[in-house]
Amino acid sequence: MSSWEPETAFTFLAQGASIQQFKVEQQNLVLGFPEAKYYRTHNTPYFGETIGRTTNRIKNATIEDLNVGIYELAHNDGPHCLHGGLQGWGKKDFDGPKPVNRRGKEGVQFTYVSKDGDEGYPGTVECKIWYTASKEAGTVVLDVEYEVGFLGEECEETVVGVTNHSYFNLNPEAPTVEGTSVILGTDQCLELDIDKIPTGKVTAHPATPSPHTLFPLGASFPIFDDCFVMDPSEVIPLDTRTLPLRKLVSLSHPATSLHLDVLSTELAFQFYTGEGIDVPELETSKGETIPAKGPRAGIAIEPSRYVDAPRKEWRGQCMLKKGQVWGARSQYRAWTE
Fold first, then answer.
1. I want to staple 309 with a disulfide (CB 3.0 to 4.6 A). Which of 28, 127, 280, 318 is the partner?
2. What average pLDDT is seen over the chain?
3. Do 304 and 138 touch, CB atoms closer than 8 A?
């Protein structure tokens, strides 16, 4: 029997099918809370959560011309809808974790049925998530697979997008990600307006070097909260799981020699340096202090479709009809040198 067991590296929670721990050499790379109750009361940054029924922002919290109608969603980001609404999937209790063996790896499955009208979205859908873990030549690997099917008879179509909102800090004892080295798989991103809503253009990001070029993160700069696009000309299927995994981001830190690669079948990813993190100091049930977490405490990497994907010109990325399946895969590979 292998001396490495998946349960020593990963902890998952039923709320939001959240990733609570991702350990490499006993170091937890993800931000979170040691007790589940705080995910309900203090998780405004979405630590570890599954984001759905849609990801990122929807302009004016409105979806037009769907089922020949207009759907109003929660305005939880100024006039816009963010991460599925006030009580998106990250705030819901999933069924699980259920132990499974998927594609030859040990793992767990989570399931959530989102009813017609949930946060304003039409149609009943079922989301399944599989987390499978392995260790390959010293590299800890977490595979994440998403599948969403249309269950209801209430309407003919809806919109779907799912990702994970874990934040990573490869120097876990440090209060910020200062000193982290970053390599992005692309320099192309959606041009955004002041509310972080796409203008419709894809352009080179002004603060990034050419793709596959290393650059450092400082104490306060550069700042990112951007949707990067791997290939602006690409047209993807609704279910991307049959596509090859592509490396989106590589992170490393000299203080710990920790490395992380994030890969996905998705065509885009949000890269966020955590300026909005603001979690106060807390206390465990045993009276132990949980340190406060502030700006730049972690980096969120969210493989996804486009921001505001339900708009007409991009709707094919996210529109789910009866008989169809939405799907995606991501993979996280972490190791020390």
1. 318
2. 96
3. no
